[in-house]
Amino acid sequence: MKLAIIIPKWPAGSIWSNFVFRFPYLSSTTLAALTPPDVEVTIQDENAQEIFFDMDIDAVAISIMTPLAVRGYEIADRFRAKGTKVIIGGFHATWMPDEALLHADAVVTGEAEGIWSRIINDIRTNRLQKRYAAPSVPELNGIPPARRDLLKKDGYFFINTLQTTRGCPFDCDFCSVTAFYGRTYRYRPVDEIEKELQGISGGANFLFIVDDNVTGNPAHAKKLFEMLKRYPFKWLSQTSITFAENPELLRLAKESGCYGMFIGFETLTQEGLNSLNKRFNRAENYAELIKKIHDHGMGIQGSFIFGYDWDTKASFETVVDFAEKTKLDSVLFTILTPYPGTKVFSRMMEENRIITTDWSKYDMAHAVYKPKNMTPDELQEGYLWANRQFYSWQSMLKRLPAFRRSLQVFGPMNWGFKKAWKEFRY
After folding, report:
1. DSSP state at residue 135
2. What is the spatial distance between Cα 337 and Cα 335, in angstroms, rounded to a whole number?
3. Are 224 and 198 a contacting pair, CB within 8 Å?
4. Which own/partner contact pairs does 377-383 have at CB distance under 8 Å and 24+ positions apart?
5. Which of 9, 227, 272, 275 could be disulfide-bonded to 46 (CB atoms 3.0-4.6 Å)?
6. For the chain, what is the mean pLDDT?
């Protein structure tokens, strides 16, 4: 049996289609690892290579996020037209299974670990069902090492991605992670993580730990960081700003080779944070906590979202000014995107504020709803100004210190964002 795992490309108008700081999706390499060894499996990431539609193949598996759904369905339709079985899964299929089923022979909702072997067997025996869902939330022990050997390595900035936890203990109302995993937070045994690390090489020893919140369980994080100290990896991950309130975690992260963290600040107003169910963030402490992380040699890619109901046209300049004054190494400015399955999507649908369900526009770079205090065009223009201002040469020279070790990561990242925003057209 021959199986192809396919990742659709980002739309041509998306900022992500122009971004050079690219790494592979761990979902694809993990799914390949879960596939029985007697199945001939390939990975084709359309962002890094062409898809071979004329290949001799028995089935394709396509994992889609919402902004990749349109292209994912196009790919699925082409394979089905030639008689190839198509299985669609991922975040968007979980939220919109009836829609996905219009383009697939089978739709998988939720996580694949508990159901993938059954799906493969059903393909072999010609008993493929239309819908599959894992009977329970899978534990993370026993997950085989990701199949990085199947990647087109020259299509990425680096290929070393690793998951140590899954889910997030928090419940922010805009977040697709909680919508997909529920309020679960699970972690892999540290000895299994270490075994996988021992098989990873290349990429200048850079490692991206793709966890949504790597320090969500501080006790597990400490064990993880202690183990990482024994290896030469320069690693990055995602966490909450509350990470900086724990001196021991800061020290261990530094000693274990952490070069940077992605941190969701979201907004500078405490009332806004409370509305987002993110009360654990204290806006008045942001600057102090940012400095603590910087003082330990780690960079920060901050995340701010524009278009909340309390945002005005003045919000763009206020946030950019804060990000520059606190010398954030990089920032992901995004437009609030009401993904299906989230609380904010349900609320905006009830309020009749969604202006398009063209999923290719749901890339966090397009206004797809009606904001309260500005027009969609004003939101779009303010968002573009913020990104181009922050990634101007003047801003980069002011923010990025030459002495911090994290410059190895955030220097290329800033250059990549600057290039992407120069080319972006909406």
Report:
1. S
2. 6
3. no
4. 378/313, 379/306, 379/307, 379/335, 380/335, 380/426, 382/306, 382/313, 382/315, 382/316, 383/306, 383/307, 383/316, 383/333, 383/334, 383/335
5. 9
6. 89
User: How far apart are alpha carbons 191 and 68 in whole angstroms?
Assistant: 35
Would you report the helix, strand and coil content of the chain in percent, each value rounded to 5?
40, 15, 40
Token readout for 129 is 């069902």
Residue 206, SS3 per DSSP = strand
Torsion, CA 218, CA 220, CA 221, CA 226, rounded to 10 = 130
Give every strand in the sheet of 330-335, ordered side by side.
161-162, 206-209, 234-239, 258-266, 299-306, 330-335
Contacts (Cβ under 8 Å, ≥6 apart) of 134: 110, 111, 112, 113, 114, 115
* Domain residue spans of the chain: 2-133, 160-423
CATH code that applies to domain 2-133: 3.40.50.2300
Cα–Cα distance, 175 to 203 (Å, whole number): 30
> Could you tell me which CATH number the domain at 160-423 has?
3.80.30.20
Q: What is the pTM of this model?
A: 0.91
The answer to whether the Cα torsion of 350, 353, 355, 356 is positive or negative is: negative
pLDDT of residue 174: 61
- The token pair at 344 is 């904010």
Per-residue pLDDT reduced to its tens digit, 190-218? 999 999 998 886 555 889 999 989 998 99
Which tens digit of pLDDT belongs to each residue from 354-402?
Answer: 999 999 999 999 999 999 999 999 999 999 999 999 999 999 998 987 6
Is there a contact between 147 and 153 (Cβ–Cβ < 8 Å)?
Answer: no
23, 161 Cβ separation under 8 angstroms: yes
Does the pLDDT of residue 188 top 60, yes or no? yes
> Tens digit of pLDDT for each residue in 19-48?
767 788 889 999 999 999 999 999 999 998
Q: How do beta strands 59-63 and 2-7 pair?
A: parallel
